[in-house]
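PaaI family thioesterase
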Amino acid sequence: MTIQQRAQTFLSVLRHCQVLGMTVEQADENGLVIKLPYSELIVGNPVTGVVHGGAITTLMDTCCGISTVCYLEELEVCPTLDLRIDYMHPAEPGKPIYGFAECYRVTPAVIFTRGVAYQERREEPLAHVVGTFMRMGPGPDGLKSFKLGGNA
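Predicted structure tokens:
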């Protein structure tokens, strides 16, 4: 299975990502890009159409968490230990939001990630993120109980 396929499979089993319409746009040794399409579900202010910050937090937590598949030999469930997001400015209504994340340090117990949320260009971020994720290992059955390959 390629890194792209592993990332897409991981994303496909997360129900909230299905509801929000998130898709893997890129996944390789350099990191992960996930797209969050604009929709009424993520609007925080119905008058202006501005996206709620919680939707961006969800995108970036998911993106950082799934970016681990770009760096680990085997798929592992890695729950969030800590996530910090610095918002630069609000997202422009009507446009999708992209999340980019990469792992910059992998230890036996913790994975350290960083990334940005953006719309047009990665160099013009909506938000910066750093996150840490606990390594739990692939499990005794290689995560077969995680149902990878189902719910696509």
